[in-house]
Amino acid sequence: MRGHDWINTCFPDDLIVEIFSRLHSMSTRDACSLVCRRWFRLQRLTRTTLRIASTHLSSLHRLPTRFSNLRNLYIDQSLSIPLHLGKMLPNYEEGDLDFLRLSDAGLSALGQDFPKLHKLGLIRCSSVSSDGLTPLARKCTSLRALDLQVCYVGDQGLAAVGQCCKQLEDLNLRFCHRLTDTGLVELALGVGKSLKSLGVAACTKITDISMEAVGSHCRSLENLSLESETIHNKGLLAVSQGCPALKVLKLHCFDVTDDALKAVGTNCLLLELLALYSFQRFTDKGLRAIGNGCKKLKNLTLIDCYFISDKGLEAIATGCKELTHLEVNGCHNIRNLGLEYIGRSCQYVFL
């Protein structure tokens, strides 16, 4: 019959949900959800990833009924409502926008509503502390990735993640000023066997003590990114000696010297990506150790490394034949000759 809705008449909910789950493009699934109210409701059931700005935090209590299969949740409060728009709200008073901030109670409720959560990102959630992260960790024991940026979570919350989330593989800590070595050491003790990726940036109370714990307990670590003024040779030596599976190493640590890079070249033989930023205390000796040991190196980035010269690149060109990507910026002692070494020996390199 012309105009008859055969799909909605004949197809049960579970079959339509199965069809939606096989559409890998999010834009295609979103387009399908606009066909009718039924498809809009069913498409939500297949959605596993959700990103929320602060302007939508007032709807958090509705998430369990709308997105029952949610596994990955990212809350970004840097995408907040402008102050001048807030003042346009009826009866606006200073502080009335608190309902647009994720609280400890809200975070705890998310753990209660989504116990099967796999990935959680909290960006600029300044009202969240250990009081919210601790109960969430106890509920979301399947958590595999945790991203904390500009949050006020302390050692107690991070220790709870280490005690409860034994499948955690990816941890990113950025501008978490309340965290100290105590929290990160406890986490390494708890999830050392599963942790594969760790990022620490501008956490001023995290020092070599934490890196020694990582080196002792996280032998499966493959990806390490450090941006710190409080982590020195001692911490990086411990990681290089204790994490032989390391494949990606990104460093922005002002006091690391050739000794640390020599240890990386000696121990991290599977290293594929090395990025060094603003290094002023290591020379061609460190890069020569990388060239001698890291034969699988494919990607090298050197930014503002003032004491690296053409001889350092010559060592890379001689030892790292699999190099495919090279980025050099602000390294004033590297000239055309160093790039010629790379061009002659590394036939697949992209400069």
TrEMBL record:
GO terms for cellular component: SCF ubiquitin ligase complex. It holds the Pfam family F-box_5. Residues 10-48 form the COI1 F-box domain. Residues 116-226 form the F-box/LRR-repeat protein 15-like leucin rich repeat domain. One of its GO terms (biological process) is SCF-dependent proteasomal ubiquitin-dependent protein catabolic process. SUPFAM superfamilies: RNI-like. This is Uncharacterized protein.
